[in-house]
Specification:
The complex is a heterodimer of chains A (33) and B (513). Chain A is an all-alpha fold and 33 residues long. Chain A has 1 helix and no strands. The model of chain A has no long low-confidence stretch (mean pLDDT 90). The chains are: A mainly alpha (33), B mainly alpha (513).
Chain lengths: 33, 513
């Protein structure tokens, strides 16, 4: 695996995690503790 | 300068001023000052860093940027036609503060700026230069106009409208501070991360605005320099003219920053807008009118028919030339609009209090978008007339000296010294008024939404913008300036979708239809 490919994967992993986070934030219940 | 000195003495040296109790302001100033100092001391290394890292991010995340921008467009239109469109940006019985006509005029003014003046004929011609060899000159001209429209019209204004809508909704309907972090603080109520993330959102918005505005400032100075050169036939190899223009600009915005000239500023901005519109009408009437009108209507058709395709186009199967073109233009613009969104958003939100979401979206998206299509249709159309119907070397000018293209186009019409001088004046006025209003918005954002931010904070932002502008100007190249702007806005690309999610969540949970 070359460095460029690794950076590309990492940059996209951050985006995937961010999208998952957005979906979770939208769905979670804000009132329960 | 005495009063500036007194202000500094009172607030900095004694350590009792608000600055030392405001970590957001201090961090934002430190971040932007660092970029400015880096750019001034070692311009080449900043330029190299910006180009390399933007190229990497664009290559890896082009799909995400286009998808985010297009999902924002879908959300904006979805809200306009949904029952949520009836919700008022204010209390339920509230009426709009401004009449519809003056509101539309103000929106129109918000959409006009140095960018339109700079890229008027340059952008369609640059696209044409790349496309003509692939799809033939006639089709390339139509497509170049449509792609310019795509870059400047609905996507740009949906990004602005979304941001302004979020600011206005939380400020006027929920009574919270008109800050970028507000939707996060209001919507997400659990978890220790909320405060820091909201704070980060405020910080990244400030950072994106400062870098974005400084980039425009540099581009504007290039254009004024280019205008004076082509008007007077001067050479500026040692760049002395560039620095004279820059110094004059700094002197010109210092006074309005120190004295409250909000009405005067609005007049200057309207004057610049008036000059720009007159220039457009002048070219439309004195130029080949039927050719230009046909071009405008034709480009609207090409734009609308290719709208969905273009909204998701990332050119994965094309070679490097097309990839670079896509990254340098469409993708760069999407990031650019996101960088500008908090700045334009605050202004648009302020003038739109009391409107319904549906009215708001219709006005904010349609009026400036139509104007952009018309504007590029006139200037671009004249460029294509020169390329396709005459021997005028306008294409060479657009490719080799983009900052002189507008003046070159004007030089082919009567009274070109008058129209050229007016264009220089309009560019200069747009710059002064943008720096003054950006200093105000930056001071407001960095003091927790203070509607009348302290003078010294506005002055510090003015100075930072000038220093950042100088750093970008020293790169001497518009392409590098665009890369630095994109770098400044990349982090905010993640904040805007977060704000949209917060807004949609509050809207769907708290509004009864």
């Amino acid at each position: 695996v070359n460095l460029e490919n690794l950076i590309d994967t990492l940059l996209n992993l951050v985006v995937f995690a961010f999208i998952a986070l957005l979906i979770w934030l939208y769905l979670r219940d804000e009132d329960s503790t | 300068m005495a009063s500036v000195k007194a202000v500094f003495a009172a607030h900095f040296m004694t350590g009792r001023g608000p600055m030392f109790r405001n970590p957001l302001l201090l961090t934002a100033l430190a971040m932007t000052a660092l970029v400015a100092v880096w750019g001034v001391i070692d311009t080449e290394s900043l330029a190299g860093f910006a180009q390399t890292s933007v190229a990497q991010q664009f290559k890896s995340r082009a799909w995400f940027i286009m998808l985010s921008a297009s999902l924002i467009v879908i959300t904006v239109f979805g809200l306009a036609v949904s029952p949520y469109g009836k919700i008022r940006l204010g209390a339920d019985g509230e009426r709009p503060e401004f009449s519809t006509l003056s509101w539309l005029t103000m929106l129109f003014a918000a959409g006009m700026g140095i960018g339109l003046l700079f890229y008027a004929a340059t952008e369609p011609l640059t696209h044409y230069a790349i496309l003509a060899s692939h799809i033939g000159p006639e089709r390339a001209a139509g497509y170049a106009l449509a792609i310019t429209g795509f870059n400047w019209a609905i996507h740009a204004w949906c990004i602005y409208a979304m941001t302004a809508l979020i600011i206005a909704y939380f400020a006027y309907r929920k009574g919270r501070p008109g800050l970028i972090g507000t939707p996060v603080r209001y919507t997400f109520r659990r978890g220790g991360w909320v405060g820091p993330v909201a704070w980060l959102a405020d910080l990244l918005a400030i950072y994106a605005i400062a870098i974005g505005l400084a980039g425009s400032l540099a581009m504007g100075v290039f254009q004024v320099q280019g205008g004076i050169q082509s008007l007077l036939g001067w050479e500026d190899e040692s760049n002395w003219l560039l620095f004279v223009v820059f110094a004059t600009l700094c002197a010109a915005f210092l006074l309005p920053l120190m004295v409250d000239l909000s009405r005067g500023m609005a007049r200057l901005s309207n004057l610049a807008l008036g000059i720009a519109v007159l220039l457009m009408i002048y070219l439309l009437l004195l130029g080949p009118t039927h050719y230009l009108m046909n071009g405008i209507v034709d480009s609207i058709g090409t734009y609308l028919s290719g709208f969905v395709r273009q909204s998701f186009a990332t050119y994965p199967f094309f070679g490097k030339e097309f990839q670079d073109w896509f990254h340098g233009w469409t993708l760069n613009y999407m990031v650019w609009w996101i960088a500008w969104a908090p700045f334009v958003g605050v202004f648009v939100a302020r003038i739109s209090r009391g409107r319904t979401i549906r009215e708001f979206i219709t006005g904010v998206v349609i009026v400036p978008s139509l104007f952009s299509l018309f504007w590029f249709g006139v200037f671009g159309g004249i460029g294509f007339f020169g390329v396709l119907q005459t021997e005028v070397p306008v294409l060479e000018v657009a490719v080799n000296a983009p900052e002189q293209t507008t003046f070159f186009v004007l030089s082919n019409f009567p009274m070109s010294s008058v129209t050229g001088a007016l264009t220089i004046a309009a560019a200069f006025l747009f710059l002064v008024t943008s720096v003054v209003s950006a200093s105000f918005v930056l001071a407001m954002f960095s003091t927790g939404g203070e509607e009348n931010p302290p003078l010294q904070i506005k002055l510090i932002w003015g100075a930072i913008l000038a220093a950042l502008g100088l750093a970008m100007m020293l790169t001497g190249d518009v392409g590098t300036v665009r890369a630095i702007i994109a770098l400044g806005a990349m982090a905010f690309v993640f904040i805007l979708p977060l704000l949209v999610v917060a807004f949609l969540k509050t809207l769907t949970r708290e509004e009864r239809l």
